[in-house]
């Protein structure tokens, strides 16, 4: 009887130890946060990331994806990634400006003159490396980019010319460059996080916002703002950002797999983008009753014509990347 008791208590201690160390928990859980829904191209790209990491390193890592700002707004999730509380986050470059001001370049209105130039610049992984490493000291770095389309104004009030923006409160991302840009257009910029926009429009706190077409459907903004105007002021990439310590400490062969997975996620995401935009437009038009308005883009360009020069004068660290982008722009304008 005594022996039995001893065996049983031994078993109990063993079971407890297994529970505490977690028998299957030799695996490192990799948490990725993003702000989009589960049908968004970024989520589909991240599923590819998970598939590759788990296929090749499934005995060591389990990847968990948290969509819909479940772990907080982009800014909050970046802070969590800095400390290592989560491992990766997808965030627009506007959110990175406070950590490395080179990212301000993407907030310039009319920076890229074609989608081709935008894609070529962003797909040049070698060129982007030093920029991606520019946040190392802040505890995170960029692995790859995702297409977030072209940003346009949308509102509860019709916008056809920059004059129509006067007196309109327009939500912008929480970065000084974004605020300046929208104010330069003549609107009153109202910075807030992405997740707050729907309610703010619904309650009349703001008139509208500016974003790609997917914001109308994935984030339901088309339920509350019925005029979407193609003034095409920006193409701003989203970035897959990783905790620097995790990336620096992992064995090189693991890092190679994470990088391969990151690049593959970009391929999936960018391949899905155009289709997703078309679907969003169809749904917004036919179900939500959003009107898509073609405007005279030149008038919008004229309204902000000094902004690029002002930004370059204020922030020398964007000059090199700006010049590089101009070279690629010229190539697709046939000016080379
Ligand atoms: C887009 C972009 C996000 C960004 C959001 C915003 O959806 O993909 O990264 O956060 O716009 O305007 O806040």
Summarize the structure.
This protein has helices spanning 2-21, 41-57, 74-83, 115-123, 125-132, 176-184, 197-202, 214-217, 244-249, 252-288, 297-303, 307-314, 319-332, and strands at 28-33, 61-66, 88-92, 140-146, 151-155, 169-172, 188-191, 208-211, 227-234, 238-243, 291-294. With 336 residues, it is of the alpha/beta class. It has a 5-stranded mixed β-sheet, sandwiched between helices. The chain has a 4-stranded mixed β-sheet with strand order 8-5-9-11, with helices on both faces. A two-stranded parallel ribbon has the order 6-7.
How would you portray this structure in words?
- This protein is an alpha/beta fold and 336 residues long.
- The chain has two domains: 28-148 and 237-275, Bacterial extracellular solute-binding protein, family 7 (D-Maltodextrin-Binding Protein, domain 2), CATH 3.40.190; 151-235 and 278-317, D-Maltodextrin-Binding Protein, domain 2 (3-Layer(aba) Sandwich).
- It is built from 13 helices and eleven strands.
- The strands form three sheets. The chain has a five-stranded mixed sheet, sandwiched between helices. A four-stranded mixed sheet has the order 8-5-9-11, with helices on both faces.
- Helix 2 runs antiparallel to helix 10 (252-288) and helix 4 packs across helix 13 (319-332).
- The N and C termini lie far apart (91 Å).
Strand content: 15-25%
How many E-type strands? 11
What is the CATH fold-level name of the largest domain?
D-Maltodextrin-Binding Protein, domain 2
Kindly report how far apart the N and C termini lie: 91 Å
Indicate how many domains the architecture comprises: 2
Q: Which compounds are bound in this model? A: alpha-D-glucopyranuronic acid
Please tell me what the overall shape is: globular
Helical region count?
13
Structural class comes to: alpha/beta
- Across the major sheet, the strand order is 2-1-3-10-4
Order of helices and strands: HEHEHEHHEEEHEHEHEEHHEHHH
Which superfamily, in CATH terms, is the homologous superfamily of the largest domain?
Bacterial extracellular solute-binding protein, family 7
């Amino acid at each position: 009887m005594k022996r039995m008791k001893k065996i049983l208590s031994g078993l109990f201690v063993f079971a407890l130890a297994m529970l505490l160390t977690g028998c299957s928990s030799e695996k490192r859980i990799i948490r990725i946060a993003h702000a989009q829904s589960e049908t968004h191209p970024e989520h589909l790209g991240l599923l590819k990331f998970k598939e590759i990491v788990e296929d090749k390193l499934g005995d060591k890592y389990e990847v968990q994806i948290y969509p819909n700002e479940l772990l907080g707004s982009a800014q909050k999730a970046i802070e969590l990634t800095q400390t290592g509380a989560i491992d990766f986050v997808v965030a627009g470059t506007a959110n990175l400006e406070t950590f490395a001001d080179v990212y301000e370049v993407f907030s310039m209105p009319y920076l890229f003159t074609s989608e081709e130039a935008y894609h070529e610049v962003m797909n040049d992984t070698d060129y982007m490396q030093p920029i991606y490493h520019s946040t190392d000291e802040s505890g995170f770095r960029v692995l790859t980019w995702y297409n977030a389309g072209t940003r346009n104004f949308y509102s509860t009030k019709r916008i056809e010319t920059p004059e129509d923006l006067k007196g309109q409160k327009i939500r912008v991302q929480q970065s000084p460059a974004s605020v300046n840009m929208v104010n330069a257009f003549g609107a009153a910029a109202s910075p807030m996080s992405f997740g707050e926009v729907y309610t703010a429009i619904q309650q009349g706190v703001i008139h509208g916002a500016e974003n790609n077409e997917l914001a109308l459907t994935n984030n339901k903004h088309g339920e509350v703002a019925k005029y979407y105007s193609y003034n095409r002021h920006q193409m701003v990439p989203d970035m897959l950002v990783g905790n620097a310590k995790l990336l620096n400490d992992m064995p090189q062969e693991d890092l190679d797999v994470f990088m391969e997975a990151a690049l593959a996620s970009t391929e999936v995401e960018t391949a899905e983008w155009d289709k997703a935009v078309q679907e969003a437009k169809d749904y917004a038009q036919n179900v939500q009753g959003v009107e898509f308005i073609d405007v005279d883009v030149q008038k919008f360009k004229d309204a902000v014509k000094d902004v690029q020069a002002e930004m370059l004068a204020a922030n020398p660290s964007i000059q090199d990347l700006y010049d590089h982008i101009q070279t690629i722009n010229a190539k697709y304008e046939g000016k080379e």
